[in-house]
UniProtKB/TrEMBL annotation:
Belongs to the SIKE family. Pfam families: SIKE. Residues 211-238 have a biased composition (Low complexity). This is Protein aael aael003544 aedes aegypti.
Amino acid sequence: MSITFEQIILDAKRIANRLKDREALGDSILLESENVNKQMESMRQFQDDIDVLNKLARERSNNQLITIINQENPQIREIRQENRQLKEALEEHQHALEHIMTKYREHTQSKILNSKINFVELYNNYQKIAENKDEIIKKQTEKIQEMAAIMQKASVLDEDKINMEHEYLSRLITENKGLREMLEISQKFGSNKLITSDDKSTQTEVNEKQSVSTSEEGTVTATEASTSSSIPVPTISSNKSENKIQSSGGSKNSS
């Protein structure tokens, strides 16, 4: 089989990539070996230090070593002393807090006993007050509803009274028209004296009816004002009816 030039180039690239990978592996292996060498050197140095300490320990006693360490590290004694002082201060603070709390508890207990407040009764009284408030609100709502009903009744009565007055006025107007027609007829046919006397009697009857209606209006308005003072009662002034009747009477007299 013939090998092409492209295959040779591909094989060369593969070989180059493999060489690069192997170089990277070699570098990593070298780094690991250096780290291992450093660890070995540190272990050797540690072992040498241990040997030196063992030699010193054999030559000197433990007390001498402790004194040497204390001389070399004076801060340790200062730190220990500070720790002792802090422990003492903390214990004193805790004792003071316990004493204060016991005094406070005794004081509160004495105050509660001296006050003699029965919290159960206070709670029950509060509930009773709340219930009484609810009852008062209900009563007030009932009263308001009653007043509204009375006001509605008064308004209905006012409307009925107004309608009755309108009917009465319309009747008076029709009577007045009839009297005028009768008066005109009497003037035409010459029976003036009789009709004038009849006219006076009818005029007096009209005035009496009008006075009765005004007195009834006054009594009705007084009773309505006593029942509902807040509602403005509509009243029809009878001055117009009086003026109409008086004008009709004047026209009769003039005729």
